[in-house]
Amino acid sequence: MLILRFLFLILLSHNHQQVLSCNQLDHASLLSVYNYISPPLNYSSTDCCQWEGISCTTHNSRVTILSLPGKHLSGSISPFLGKLSFLTHLNLSKNHLSGPLPPALFHNLKHLKTIDLSSNQFNGSIDPSFLHNLITYNVSNNSFTGPIPLSICKGSPFLEALDFSMNQFNGQIFHGIGECRKLKVFRAGFNTLSGWLPQDFHRLTTLMEISLPNNHLSGPINSSIVLLHNLTILELHVNELSGQLPPDIGLLSNLEQLQLHTNSLNGTIPPSLMNCSNLKTLLLRNNFLGGEISALDFSILQRLQVIDLGNNSFSGNISNSLCLCRSLTAVRLAYNELTGEIPPCMASLRSLAHLSLSNNYLSNVSRALKILKNCHHLAVLFLSRCFHDEVMPDDDDGLNGFQNLQILTLGGCQLKGEIPNWIAKLRKLKVLNLSYNKISGPIPIWLGAMPSLFVLNLTQNFLSGELPHQIGGMQALIGDNTSSDLSHLALPFLFDSLQYNRLFNLPRGLKLGHNSLSGSIPEEIGRLKLLRVLDLSNNNFNGGIPGKLSNLVNLEKMDMSGNRLSGRIPEVLSELHFLSSFNVADNDLEGEIPKGGQFDTFSVTSFEGNPKLCGYPLMRRCPEVEMRSIPKEGEEDPDESLWYNNDNYVPFGMGYFVGLFAVILAFCWRRNA
Ligand SMILES: *[C@@H]1O[C@H](CO)[C@@H](O)[C@H](O)[C@H]1NC(C)=O
Ligand SMILES: *[C@@H]1O[C@H](CO)[C@@H](O)[C@H](O)[C@H]1NC(C)=O
Ligand SMILES: *[C@@H]1O[C@H](CO)[C@@H](O)[C@H](O)[C@H]1NC(C)=O
Ligand SMILES: *[C@@H]1O[C@H](CO)[C@@H](O)[C@H](O)[C@H]1NC(C)=O
Ligand SMILES: *[C@@H]1O[C@H](CO)[C@@H](O)[C@H](O)[C@H]1NC(C)=O
Ligand SMILES: *[C@@H]1O[C@H](CO)[C@@H](O)[C@H](O)[C@H]1NC(C)=O
Ligand SMILES: *[C@@H]1O[C@H](CO)[C@@H](O)[C@H](O)[C@H]1NC(C)=O
Ligand SMILES: *[C@@H]1O[C@H](CO)[C@@H](O)[C@H](O)[C@H]1NC(C)=O
Ligand SMILES: *[C@@H]1O[C@H](CO)[C@@H](O)[C@H](O)[C@H]1NC(C)=O
Ligand SMILES: *[C@@H]1O[C@H](CO)[C@@H](O)[C@H](O)[C@H]1NC(C)=O
Ligand SMILES: *[C@@H]1O[C@H](CO)[C@@H](O)[C@H](O)[C@H]1NC(C)=O
Ligand SMILES: *[C@@H]1O[C@H](CO)[C@@H](O)[C@H](O)[C@H]1NC(C)=O
């Protein structure tokens, strides 16, 4: 088909030779290029300079531009592309082109200034020698392999942008890049590059951006990098860099983004960094940095929006001068050794939306909240394992405010007191984690009236009394009126992808395990259709397991172990098709374990510690007199489970003959198979 069209066009072009304005050599080459790709492009005109994506010189009609970005093209590159000898601009970005580039493709393309092959599926290695006038070279987001070809700088000393990112380049970034004396942008992130940073970086004084994240680069950041005065973006995160930050890093006065997180850097933050008045983003988390944070004077960083120093060994008080960075929207100091109190001046951070101070040694949680309630934009507040052994701030602390708060964590602080009423006023709160504290008293009735809450974690406290039936009113667990998408809140770059996913894909859940709750399990919980996790384990609940829980069609995990529940396990629970974890161990349940559905997958540990339970997977057989319930009209025959349940357990009574029949059938089936 393609060949026919090709021949036809050649014939056509011969018939109309006199009206052709485009150069015949180029015409033939382009035909080949277009025939290597699909879907077919518009080349109805006899003048190839009129074809889609083509431009020519005016005087001799030579093709200079071939630009077909984002056209959903697939196929590969024809070797004839290399014959378009006047080509200056090649842009095939954002297509589905694949395969290796033809050998010696660029040998005759002496005029090429721009090559953009980004976002395709090209593979193989690249040979850019013979290129002499390149300005822009972008091969990012493909599957190229081999070393990154820095010989390109020798041939094309006027290169301004080099983008090798998101491929499978490996090996070291050797000497050679220093020859690119006009280079402004150098990107090679998300490859498997190793070795040290190039030694001749400091010669590239024109550089504005160095972006090499997510490789295996090691060794120190050479101090000579501070000679790159025009550098605005320095991204070396997620590598294996070690040693200290260059002491004179403050000489990089144009720096806006410094991302060095997730390396093995040690030492302190050089005071000179506080001279980088253009800094907007400073990410240093997951390193071995330390020192007194209060010794740093942040006051010059008026444009700073995001600072993440988490998971290092910073100590001392939170610096007062941080409050002077009025543009701050996100501050993460979690997982350090900070002490003292939150400085009162933080109340003036009016743009602050995200604050994480988890895992530190701060004190006075009541005062901290009183200060932070003034940050009206605060949406995310992580304070778990941040305070220790204090009293839960209560309503006497005047905690109105927090009207935009969506996530509040105060877990693992050993806080005493009751669940305070001020929380009831947080109409936007979606996630509340008060786990691992010493909170006593009842579960307040108003929790059921919180309009947005869909993750409630009260695990391991001293909560007592009954679980109020009003809990079944939690709107965000009943209907999908509130979005459970927390991702727009997050500043994704604050987290490594793994942690990010863990935090922001929280399943809707009620976690009330390890408390002293008593009474029966309210059947109203069955209304919370969107629940994915229900943990009531290790309390004093008694009575039966409500059959209404079978309405929780999204439930993946149900834990009721370690209570005093009695009666049978409702058979309808076998209708919960997503239930992958079920635990009722250590109760006082009786009768036969339901069969079918997910119940065929649960192990002994889900049921042990109930002396009166019987049936699979327990070793205890049920008494033979017991009758299986007669299936109601319109319901599935419960014995259907036999078809795939080929253990040696055979039900007696009603199901016996059905079962026998099934076994015979299954036997014949297998013989025939
Ligand atoms: C193909 O291009 C020619 C001009 O080059 C134009 O007149 C014609 O409308 C185009 N056809 C389609 C289907 O786009
Ligand atoms: C290639 O085309 C895309 C889409 O129009 C454009 O965004 C990109 O800047 C072009 N590449 C170059 C190097 O000009
Ligand atoms: C390379 O192309 C991609 C799009 O495929 C773009 O996002 C990126 O900014 C380009 N690189 C440079 C240095 O312009
Ligand atoms: C990478 O390329 C694919 C198409 O090949 C595109 O869908 C995707 O958005 C690109 N990714 C980036 C980060 O540009
Ligand atoms: C390149 O990709 C093609 C499929 O598009 C495959 O057949 C070929 O083996 C790959 N070559 C290399 C060097 O990976
Ligand atoms: C830093 O780079 C300079 C210049 O290339 C070199 O002489 C020096 O040895 C390097 N220092 C370290 C610690 O690598
Ligand atoms: C740095 O940037 C300024 C302003 O864009 C420019 O005038 C200057 O030439 C650049 N310096 C170098 C060494 O490229
Ligand atoms: C930093 O780490 C290097 C090894 O990477 C080590 O030699 C040096 O002593 C460390 N410095 C500090 C201050 O811990
Ligand atoms: C910050 O810059 C000022 C003026 O440019 C200079 O005097 C001071 O020494 C610098 N501070 C540090 C710590 O480098
Ligand atoms: C802290 O950083 C280390 C080393 O980068 C990493 O292994 C660890 O998972 C991080 N811990 C947290 C809580 O982020
Ligand atoms: C830390 O702050 C407390 C008050 O909260 C103050 O008493 C103490 O002196 C400060 N310590 C340092 C090292 O600044
Ligand atoms: C909630 O409680 C569980 C214990 O069941 C704990 O492991 C988890 O980290 C807590 N936090 C969140 C946000 O779920």
TrEMBL record:
Span of the signal peptide: 1-21
Subcellular location: Cell membrane
Topology of the protein relative to the lipid bilayer: Single-pass type I membrane protein
Keywords, comma-separated and alphabetical: Cell membrane, Glycoprotein, Leucine-rich repeat, Membrane, Receptor, Repeat, Signal, Transmembrane, Transmembrane helix
Pfam families: LRR_1, LRR_8
InterPro entries in the record: Leu-rich_rpt, Leu-rich_rpt_typical-subtyp, LRR_dom_sf, RLP23-like
Any one GO BP annotation for this protein: response to other organism
Segments crossing the lipid bilayer: 649-669
Primary localization class, coarse: membrane
Assigned GO CC terms: plasma membrane
Gene3D superfamilies: Ribonuclease Inhibitor (3.80.10.10)
Sequence similarity: Belongs to the RLP family.
PANTHER family attached to this UniProt entry: LEUCINE-RICH REPEAT-CONTAINING N-TERMINAL PLANT-TYPE DOMAIN-CONTAINING PROTEIN, LRR RECEPTOR-LIKE KINASE
Name this protein carries in UniProt: Leucine-rich repeat-containing N-terminal plant-type domain-containing protein
Organism: Buddleja alternifolia
